[in-house]
Request: fold
Amino acid sequence: DIVMTQSPDSLPVSLGERATINCTSSQSVLYSSNNKNHLAWYQQKSGQPPTLLIYWGSTRESGVPDRFSGSGSGTDFTLTISSLQAEDVAVYYCHQYYNYPLTFGGGTKVEIK
Amino acid sequence: QVQLRQWGAGLLKPSETLSLTCAVQGGSFSGFYWSWIRQPPGKGLEWIGEINHSGYTKYNPSLKSRVTMSVDTSEKQFSLRLKSVTAADTAVYYCARLSSSSTWGQGTLVIVSS
Reply:
């Protein structure tokens, strides 16, 4: 199984400041045939199902604000919220769909400092 | 815009079989894989498995011996059965399409308790 490790577990950030979440996979999720990273980021607000923010490592889902961005390749990835808003308080998960079983990171809880 | 509506029993006794169904509304059923994912209270996400419109399945090896997924293409529904449940299977269960334009059901809390 590909193990997804996120850091930090908890991230207090002041409103308007940058939030950076890291995700490391135990093996590369860069698929050579399409040169795409099979890595997604989800946001889960309290009591709700997760919603997709980013796929292919850096492609923003339709309707997602541009303050959310994804970067990285291979085994190391980052989700950045450029200017934290109150509505961004949530748990964020990275997710690999490179191979089976599909796996998720343990989550990073973003809160207001 | 596709939506997923799910239902099933929320309270089970140990050794019983969990049974959930998910209906795909407002979008195409074919050409996608449909997943089940669970989340124990206060914990992270675990992928259970997926099925396509032809009934082709992929299961998480950690649950494979107890999981069965099925599909009803005419109704645009897919189902999950998990047998011999224990307290460790207590979780919110979600149906989902995990591709781009990902869509999730509302979730069903399943509690296993004697």
